[in-house]
Write a structure and sequence with these properties.
The protein is 44% helix and 24% strand. By secondary structure, it is α/β, with parallel strands linked by helices. Strands 6, 7, 8, 9, 10, 11, 12 and 13 form an eight-stranded mixed beta sheet that branches. α2 (43-52) packs parallel to α3 (69-78). Mean pLDDT is 86; it is low at 1-8.
Length: 383
């Protein structure tokens, strides 16, 4: 659903915040888009309201007296009656650990205050779209299961049913593979679920378009999305080329990882090649003023935890210090540069050209030595 359009079917949203002004503001924003809004000024009231009038979606403040948002979310997820209702946190807390905690208790998204009207509407619309797609997927899966059952009965009567069954299964696999990594799909097909899994060695890349906020302020939303679609589609092609796993996009940021969910020993090298190719690819794109785009890239390697988060949202994501430092490498980098940690440098220094940047201050890590990845060394052949 487009966040600029009213929903065709009225959706119930519960807004929970101990600040009446915030509740009124969110209520106005959502009501103007055609949503039905209920309000609660504390955690206890929120839980009671959800039990009596289960909403489609909950917008939940973190910092509340007596019972904070994390506690409210945990109680809702513990109840069979309310565990499937998606929760979006709203908070002034912007630390990675706060966001990780939100997802740990079952949230599907996290909006940092002060928020923008369009951001709230876009994220709400995104979650409602995901719900609709999940219901459609469930219906299609049910239909597929019914079809498979019929084919299994008919297989005794004609050999052609076996081919039809394989085709139906292929369509189902293709649908899931557009959402999740192949290894995760295999687990789901076996009924094993997709619990979080630790990977002792993986490489994570974050890339961010430089000055994209100023570009977004000058062009229409349609042009903005078109820019991002063209650029990220090219990055997707590079991800497939190097055998890596695209994790997610967030605004104008792109995240990709190597070495998971399928192990591979050369994940650091594959990510380095991806980063260098991304620099080459972004040079083919121009801004609305004709200037070349630039990206900042940050890379780190080490242990991570990966899995599918949420109850109703199909999203494969990563957590851990390795991920946080990779993100810092990007945010503390320079336009047009690839900044990497010492761990990456030590693994790749024999095959790639690096330039030492020196010590930089990283939140939670202190002074850290960083390097610029410049190029891949050319192999020489003795004549």
């Amino acid at each position: 659903m487009d966040s600029n359009q009213s929903p065709t079917i009225q959706t119930s949203i519960l807004v929970v915040d101990d600040k009446p002004d915030n509740v009124r503001l969110l209520s106005t924003i959502l009501t103007e888009q055609g949503y039905q809004v209920r309000k609660a000024l504390n955690g206890q009231r929120a839980i009671a309201t959800v039990q009596e009038f289960p909403p489609t979606l909950i917008l939940l403040d973190v910092m509340m007296p007596e019972m904070n948002g994390y506690e409210v979310c945990a109680k809702l997820k513990a109840s069979p009656k309310t565990c499937s209702i998606p929760v979006i946190f709203l908070s002034a807390l912007d630390d990675v650990s706060d966001k990780v905690k939100a997802f740990d208790v079952g949230a599907v998204d996290y909006i940092t205050k002060p928020f923008q009207d369009k951001e709230v509407l876009a994220r709400v619309a995104n979650q409602l779209t995901i719900q609709t797609q999940q219901k459609l997927l469930q219906e299609q899966t049910k239909q597929l299961e019914e079809l498979v059952g019929c084919l299994q009965n008919e297989i005794q009567e004609r050999q052609g049913a076996e081919l039809a069954l394989r085709l139906a299964q292929k369509k189902s696999d293709h649908l899931l593979l557009n959402i999740l990594p192949a290894a995760i799909v295999e687990n789901l097909k076996k009924g094993e679920g997709s619990p979080a899994e630790r990977f002792d060695s993986a490489t994570v890349l974050f890339a961010d378009l430089v000055n994209f906020t100023s570009i977004a302020a000058r062009i229409s939303p349609l042009e903005l999305v078109n820019f991002l679609n063209q650029i990220f589609s090219k990055f997707d092609q590079l991800t497939e080329k190097h055998g890596l796993e695209k994790i997610k996009t967030n605004g104008d940021a792109y995240m990709v990882a190597g070495g998971l969910p399928v192990l591979r020993p050369d994940h650091a090298e594959a990510i380095a090649d991806m980063a260098l190719d991304m620099q080459g690819a972004i040079a083919d794109f121009k801004t609305d003023t004709g200037e070349p785009f630039q990206i900042r890239i940050g890379i780190n390697t080490g242990p991570v935890v990966a899995g599918v988060i949420g109850i109703k949202k199909f999203s494969y994501d990563l957590w851990g210090d390795t991920v946080n430092v990779a993100s810092r490498m990007e945010s503390h980098g320079l336009p047009g540069c690839i900044q990497v940690t010492t761990a990456v440098y030590e693994q790749l220094k024999d095959r790639y050209i690096f330039e030492e940047r020196g010590a930089i201050a990283i939140k939670g890590k202190g002074e850290t030595i960083a390097y610029w990845l410049k190029a891949k060394k050319q192999l020489t052949v003795d004549s």
